[in-house]
TrEMBL record:
PROSITE patterns: PFKB_KINASES_2. InterPro entries: Carboh/pur_kinase_PfkB_CS, PfkB_Carbo_kinase, PfkB_dom, Ribokinase-like. This is Carbohydrate kinase. Pfam families: PfkB (PF00294). It comes from Streptomyces sedi. Transmembrane segments: none annotated. GO terms for molecular function: ATP binding; kinase activity.
Length: 321
């Protein structure tokens, strides 16, 4: 049965990227954040989604608020128990589109109340790495899993926020123990587990509890790992404009499938089809500038796409897919 109205609750940061390109003396302020981008991607895929996030009453926060208001996404601004600062990411973009990031972070929600009709809970990125909010999000993941909800996370490792590799690895392993589906990039795993292959690192995390670990590998495609199977899918050929938001678009498609299916796909043929659709979603995003995920019509070949139907696009760390 396909659950077309099943809601995804996305818990995590909305922020402003200050983008510097090589040779430029001026920065460009672009609202985004991985969870915010994921929520926008879900909306484009016609999947009911609620973004639970926070921002400050400051100029970057005004930009975030304006951006989110134009996306069509249902947004819950989380209480913080006091004045909050909007997270700002300082992005230094090289000529090849790669980026180095520094973060000025603020993530301190005091309550995380999900919509009653939530079917799938998604989190990750800064939301599970920046305290004091990270501990609350991990507690939420554990509680929602205990209630039987499908909890999903994207590691989206940010060493600039938590440079202690062993501490970050412990956090990732704790998160793996609380979710049913865990996504990471090959670069995430290489940083967390420098002495392991990507496959070995993925299996290390899968053994901690997830039914499915998904690893994105940029131009090499993606792999899915369950207790019984490993599934590899190629990346579609595409003329890459940039890779900003590609991993977030992949995650949106994965969450859309999980919510619609109401279960984790473990049959290898089904899983391969799911991952292929996710890879196509990421590839379509790479073919356009910025975090500009496709609509369901474009992704599923049902008709023309209007690129950014809500007139917005966000930004986040260039992702390998």
């Amino acid at each position: 049965m396909v659950h077309v109205t099943a809601r995804v609750a996305v818990v995590g940061e909305a922020l402003v990227d200050l983008l510097w390109r090589t040779g430029s003396r001026e920065a460009r302020a672009v609202p985004g954040g991985s969870p915010a981008n994921v929520a926008v991607g879900l909306h484009r895929l016609e999947r009911p989604a609620t973004l639970l996030t926070s921002w400050g009453d400051d100029p970057p926060g005004a930009l975030v608020a304006e951006h989110l208001a134009g996306t069509g996404v249902e947004v819950v601004r989380l209480p913080t128990g006091g004045p909050a600062r909007t997270t700002v990411a300082l992005a230094y973009l090289a000529a090849d589109g790669s980026a180095h990031y520094d973060f000025l972070t603020s993530w301190a929600p005091t309550a995380l109340d999900l919509p009653e009709d939530t079917a799938v809970v998604h989190t990750g990125s800064l939301a599970v790495a920046v305290e004091p909010g990270a501990s609350r999000v991990l507690e939420l993941a554990a509680a929602q899993s205990a209630l039987g909800r499908l909890v999903v996370a994207d590691l989206n490792v940010r060493p600039a926020v938590l440079p202690d590799r062993s501490a970050y690895r412990a956090l990732a392993e704790r998160l793996a123990g609380e979710v049913r589906v865990l996504k990471a990039s090959d670069e995430d795993l290489a940083w967390l587990y420098p002495d392991l292959t990507v496959g070995e690192a993925a299996e290390t995390l899968r053994a901690l509890g997830p039914e499915l670990v998904v690893v994105t590998r940029g131009a090499e495609g993606a792999l899915g790992l369950t207790a019984a199977h490993r599934v590899d899918v190629p990346a579609p050929a595409v003329a890459v404009v940039d890779t900003v938001g590609a991993g977030d678009a992949f995650q949106s498609a994965l969450l859309d499938d999980l919510a619609g299916r109401g279960a984790v796909p473990t049959d290898p043929a089904v899983l391969a089809a799911v991952l292929a659709r996710c890879a196509r979603c990421a590839a379509l995003t790479c073919a356009r500038e910025g975090a500009d995920p496709p609509t369901r019509a474009l992704l599923d070949g049902e008709g023309a796409d209007t690129a950014a139907p809500d007139g917005t696009r966000g930004a986040e760390t260039p992702d390998r897919g």
